[in-house]
Structures are given as C-alpha cells and as structure tokens.
Amino acid sequence: MSTDDKNRAIAAAILPLVGGAGNITSVAHCMTRLRLGLRDRSLVRDEALKALPSVMGVVEDDTYQIVLGPGTVARVTPEFEALVAEAPKPAASADELAAQGAALKEARKAKNATPFKLFLRKIANIFVPLIPALIGCGIIAGLNGLLVNLGWLPGVTPALAAIASGFMALIAVFVGYNTAKEFGGTPILGGAVAAIIVYAGVAKIEVFGQALSPGQGGVLGALGAAVLAVYVEKWCRRWVPESLDVLVTPTLTVLVSGLVTVFGLMFVAGEVSQAIGDFANWLLENAGAGAGLLLGGLFLPLVMLGLHQALIPIHTTLIEQQGYTVLLPILAMAGAGQVGAAMAVYLKLPRNGSIRRTIKSALPAGFLGVGEPLIYGVSLPLGRPFVTACVGGAAGGAFVGLFSMLGDKVGSTAIGPSGWALFPLLDGNKGLGATIAIYAGGLLVGYLVGFVATYFWGFSRELIEEFDVDTDAGAGTAPVAAGNTPPPAVGTPEPEPAKV
C-alpha cells in the first residue's frame, strides 16, 4: 500500500466513527491532532476510535481532537477533508438549499474560469484580508499628519506615528502568512520565511556586491518567498519519513526557502518593486492625462472581467514604497462616471418605476464608492449607459492625471474605499488641501461627463421605447434589451463585488 493510500485508509476509518460527513462542521490540525468541529457529539464512537491502530488517543475540548502523531496528522487531514467534501449531504432546509444554489452558481463560474483568473483570485485572497488594517492605519497616518502640520498634540503624534506605521513595517510577514495559507502550505512557515525580509540583520549581508536593506523586495519578495516555502514543504511532506517530519520538514522549509530569499528573491523583488514605483511615477509625470484617461475609462471593464485583482499587489507595493498609491484615486473616477450615468438614466426613464427605485436606493452607496448595484442593476443591463459611464470615468481620470503631470500627485494611503469614502485616506506631495481639491474636482468631472454622455448619447430611440414603460403596472421589473446581459434581482449585486 502506498503512503497516500495508507493515509486515505486512516481517514476513511475515522470518518464513520465521528458520525459521518454530515456531522462535521470544521476540519483542522495542529502538530499532532486532527481537530474536528461536530454537529452532534453523541454520534461519536470514542472506544472504536481509540481502538484504531493509527489513533493514539482522543481529547475533547472546544473541538474534538484525535491524536495521530506528528507527520501523520499533516498527511491524513487533507485526505479526511477530501472524504468529507465528497460525501453525499443530508436533506437540507430551505435556507440551506438557497445557500447550495448560490454555491452551485459559484461552482459554474469557477468551472469556466481561466487559470489566469484563478491565479488572480488567489492574489486577491492574499491581499484582501489586509485591507481593514491598511484602511485603519492609513486613516491614523492621515490624522497624525494633520496634527503635525497644525502643531497640535506634540506629545501624542509620535505614538500615532508608531501605531500607523507598525503594520506597514511588518506587512511582508502577513503577506507571507496569507500566501502560504492560500497555496496550501503551513501559514506560519510562510510568515517565518517572509519575516526574513524585514529583519534588520539582513543589512549585514551582501548580494551581488550590494548590502541588502531591511524590507528590500517588500510584499512581492514576501509573496515569492512564501510560495517557494509551500513547494519545499510539500516536497518534504512527500519524501521525509513520518517519524522525522515534525523536525525535518519545518527546518528544511525555512532553511532552503530562506537562503533563496536572502541570496536571490530579495534582490530581484527589490528591483521589480523599484521598477513599478519608477514606472508609475514616470507615467503620471509624463503622460498623466492620457494615462488617467485610459485607467479611468477601462477600470469598469477590468472589474467585469475580474482583471482588476492584478492591481492589488501594485497598489500595496506603491503604498509600501511611497506611503500612498497614485493609481487608486484615478481608478476611483470610474465610480464617479457610473454615478453620473445613473442620474442621467433616472431622468431619461421617467415612467420606469423599477429602475428609478433601484437608482434611488443605490445612489448613496454609489457616492461612497460601492458601484455594484448601479452597474449590475442599471447600466450594464441597458448596455450603452455602461459605455458612457466609462466615458465619465475616463474624463475624471484624465483630470486627476493632468495634475500629476503638473506636479500635484494625488494618492491613497490604503486600498478598498473609493468615492467619497476615499477622502480620509488621501495624501499627496503638495499638502492635504490641494490633494482634496484635485480629487474632488475629478469626482465632479466624472459625475458631469458621465451624466452628459449618458443623457445625450446613452440611449437609442429603440432603447427608450423598450425601457421607458410603466413597469409598476406589470411584473415590477424592467425588461432586458436583446443582446444585453440580464441583471440579477434589481438592485442586487453579483457575488465578489469590486468597489469602484
């Protein structure tokens, strides 16, 4: 029997003795124990479990813990999870059936996803959990900068600076942890390898004739280091004897991937990170208006295709390097164009109560940068208004980009929010007042151009005839133009929303 067959046999022997797949709510493992969340503790057959040759004992705590020993548990757990996932599920309640339907929809989307999109989804899963900390620390940094400029609370501002900067100083560790988790490795080992990048002692190491700098390579280096650690760990799990696994696997994982990180990845990732920052600055300084036009105009289509996730590491790299990302305020103009387009649709369809109610309920969220209800419930189903919304975003992006060419950079200290919600996170090189004024001007341009473009060019005569009808007299929902993508329930966003 091969090692894989042996581990699967152990998992298969355990599963019925803990009540079957339907009794399992969670599966995890520590160094020696398989930890299970159970629906009904009374279904577990303790004595039969203890009698299994592979089981060293059981422990009952907040989870039900089956002691399998070091090495073995790391190999049995994935097999156990697979058996739980493959097992038929019991009859579900109405709510569970609805949840299953949503899951099936997501499964269909996943089936049609390309490898590139799946990779981008992994990247998003690594960085999205960091956004709350980026937002919180970004706002605190902005508040601290304001207090410093005003000369207020000099005894408090150093503490605020430490609070705002602590997370960014160690962001590589969090990226490494999440990367290993997302790619199927042990998260803490990914964090341990990534921690090398921010360790002050790397300054004593020379690579290619240059001394390394703590933090060199940043989040990109941490990402690469953690991915390498996952592959080393998986190799070790396959070839290292189970009796030595607990000692050898973590040691080799950290040592091998750590040496590669120090003598290769940090230097390469540092060069790439620097190139990203230099290119972003060069682009906005020399072609800001044109770059803003393209970025602001194309961001909504990128969101629809899921390709906007590729920008997350770039934003994070710029924030890590410069303290803010100069790209996000430009991309946020796409949401302004969407809001302007929605207001024009409201006026152009005075008889369509369904669409008008959707717009009225979704506009407040749209102003705050949450554009999905307007996109999926209004502009995208109509077709042409989606295009004119992109025109508004392009105009707002060109406005902000133009000022970058003139030397007034507008940036965001965090990613996630846009619209009016981005104001507390704004930063730039010419003072907060100028930065806020430029960003606000871009929003106004986006609103205005999105409105005008949609009002005058967003509707054909046929579209008006089809949609400007009294929907309240019928089913209460708007018809869908032929050839256009049908919306979900009016005002309801699709899964995996993207803030624009």
Describe this structure in words.
This is PTS transporter subunit EIIC. It comes from Streptomyces omiyaensis. Residues 8-90 form the PTS EIIB type-1 domain. It is a multi-pass membrane protein. The chain crosses the membrane at residues 126-147, 159-177, 184-202, 214-232, 244-269, 289-312, 324-347, 359-379, 386-406, 436-457. The strands form 3 sheets. A 4-stranded antiparallel beta sheet has the order 1-2-4-3. A two-stranded antiparallel sheet has the order 5-6. Helix 1 crosses helix 3, helix 14 (333-348) runs antiparallel to helix 15 (353-367) and helix 16 (372-382) packs across helix 17 (384-405). The model is unreliable at 474-500 (pLDDT under 50). 64% of the residues lie in helices and 6% in strands. Strand 3 and strand 4 (64-67) form a beta hairpin. The protein has 3 domains: 3-88, Gyrase A, domain 2; 123-282, no CATH class; 323-473, no CATH class. It is built from 19 helices and 8 strands. It is globular. It has helices at 3-14, 46-50, 72-86, 94-111, 115-127, 131-150, 157-169, 171-182, 187-198, 218-239, 242-305, 312-322, 328-331, 333-348, 353-367, 372-382, 384-405, 432-457, 461-467; strands at 24-29, 33-38, 57-60, 64-67, 206-207, 210-211, 410-412, 426-428. The chain is of the alpha+beta class and 500 residues long.
